[in-house]
Design brief:
Pnp Oxidase, Chain A; elongated
């Protein structure tokens, strides 16, 4: 799925992530809280998720609010990751400028040793978020450009009612 956030200058920022889970709280994803996307969500938790299946000409767009889930869920998610993924998560200063690969190699070596010595170690910055939807749009493409679009919006947050709209293509 694609997660879209907004940076401190008001520019949209999008990247592809793995959908980890879906439950009554929303769509879940895991990130490093100190990454750009983590800082952006802290500053503005309004986000968008987009799922796209080109072979089917179908997409789902979700707009909502990202909420950090309990530390226990973040820890469980981190511990379920493959060892190599844990090592990379610890070693990487995500999206910062890498001056030389030797620094990254040293970071990887140190992180690998840490994970081997402490298999239950959880990166403190590892967080799982859930996006509680405010709107969900289903889009089905058509070769004649008469796309089918259905939008569902939360109409009453107290009782959880949704409204449904058919949109122009």
């Amino acid at each position: 799925m694609t997660l879209s956030t907004v940076d401190e200058h008001g520019y949209p920022d999008a990247r592809v992530l793995i959908l980890k889970n879906l439950d009554h709280r929303g769509w879940h994803f895991a990130i490093k809280a100190d990454s750009p996307k983590g800082r952006q969500i802290t500053n503005n938790p309004a986000v968008a998720l987009t799922f796209y299946w080109p072979q089917l000409g179908r997409q789902i767009r979700i707009r909502g609010v990202a909420t950090e889930l309990p530390d226990s869920e973040s820890a469980a998610d981190f511990l379920e990751r493959p060892a190599g993924s844990k090592v990379t998560a610890l070693a990487s200063k995500q999206s910062e400028v890498l001056a030389d690969t030797a620094t990254l190699e040293r970071n990887l070596k140190g992180a690998r040793e840490k994970i081997e010595a402490q298999p239950e170690y959880v990166a403190p910055a590892w967080k799982v978020f859930a996006v509680a939807p405010k709107t969900v749009e289903f889009w089905q493409g058509a070769t004649d450009r008469m796309h089918q679009r259905l939008r569902f919006r939360v109409s009453n947050e107290q009782d959880g009612t949704w409204s449904r709209d058919v949109l122009y293509p």
